[in-house]
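Researcher: Next entry in the queue.
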Amino acid sequence: MTTRLYDYIITVSNAAPFKNGNNFIGLSSNTFGYVANVNTVTNNIKVKVNNVYQEFIVGESVVSTHYKISNVSTSQSFTPANADVVRFTLTGNTVPASAGELSVYVAGQYQSRANWEYEESNTAIHFFEFAKPGSNTVIVRRDTGNTEAPSFAASNLSLGNAQNSSSTVITAINNSPFIRSKNAFTQPPVVRLLTFYYPGEWYPPNEKGNPSGSGAGLSWPADIPWRIAEVIGDIHSDLNYNVTFGSESYMPYPMETDGIGTSSDGTIDRVTVRVSNYDNIVTNFVENPYLVGNVAAPHSVSGYVNGELVQGLDPNTVVGSSSYDQSVVDSYYGGKTNVAWSYDRAIAQGKTWKNLKYDSRDFLGGVVEIKSTFASHLQYWPEYSKIRDINSSNLVQVYNSAPYRIGDSVTTPTSNTTVRVVSILDEEFLLLDNPLSNASVDQSLFVLNQEHDPEAYIKDVFKVTELSALNENFAEFILTSWLQYFKLQLPKRKFYKNTCQWEYRGSECQYPGPNGGAIPGTFPVLNANTNPITTSNEVGISADEDECAKSYEACKLRNNTIHFGAFPGTGRQVPKQ
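Model: Structure for this entry, 577 residues:
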């Protein structure tokens, strides 16, 4: 499913109150959109509009609204008496109705539910031994009705209408540079960024970039995600390439990717990706039955990956650990720190390897994200050369001057400043306007993109459904759209007139009967019917006959119409089977 991230860069008088993901409404134009990114330094807000026939207007007031549906939002803070404390007792409004209402933070970092448990008998949070908070501050938050909470718990009350959470005035509107590049007469090279995630059950990554789903609380397997890039366009074949986008580095790699299109019935075509198998790099992935697994504790330890505490790490790779070994990091993990055990490393150490996936060969079920952008929106221009010599503080000799132009801003991986190219001499010397700090011979000299924009892309998500070819030259994957793979229908909830879609007496229905009890959310309070009611909407003999007919009449007999799970105002009936 192809999606763009945003359409406009809107400059406002004050961007500080706006948040990513919130709505963005023009009060004069009635244009509605969503916030993709907020820059409080420049007061620029990147906005994706819902309707391309609507446009915001310079000078109009814009607001972001929210609905207050949470009846509980409270937190409790703890300072451990010593580093061995693992249990913290909750009091007052922080005591939850269920553990799903709680989220836990240590030193400001969200803690996976794999790190703690809620003890209902003594209303306490208990950290497991491997995740002890030490001397760090522990905050326990209880939320209901908060859709942004790590675990959403429905609210029993509705506390008012929409409220304005922020307001400002539009001072300028500019198109997305991605759209400008797309519509340009001469386009910069197209860049396709492919990220392979495995296993697919751990996708999508959470806000920290770590696994979610059944992989929550773990780190990705070694060398996953695998990021490669295809640069399409007029480029020099004798130069090195660097692809950095959104602070992530992608390996430029020979491959062919089909165009992403739709068929006549609206379904997204299958996509074929052919990737070079030079040096058997792909073979090492797709023929490895031990790609996903780990070593049991105590040989695995916890550590921070992307700011989140995760389990299953090789102790020799955890920075700050007494077991840290740089030689292991370099020889087994390519210089990466805080990484999960690899199979080869575990066997070499005589550890017992436990597979977390029965068979990981052929990469089947893996997820591939394809981001399409232009070379001008990468952090650096793909083409670069290396420094051959530094003749003076402002004169640098490179192996090839083709990637550079007068006026370009250049830098190296270790430089903390950028300098400008003033002149190019004899096709190999660059005269700079200032000294290039911390630069050395044989370092890469990158050209900084002035239009670097980490949100300027369109994204497609696919599942790997087939490895159709594998030889010494290439590997060929067949990808199927994420939606079609699961045969999803959107929206999932259909707008039927008189058929409730909730589970009877479930979390949405909230009916407490048939033995009476208050109906949640009613004011004045209504009580449940004290009689069991059958599917024919008649009084039953025993509680075993209490079964809902899923109709409005059935809800009305139970005084529970406030939770009726259908749409009486529509004209659509459930279709006959």
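Model: Residues 326-333 form the longest helix (8 residues).
Researcher: Noted, moving on.
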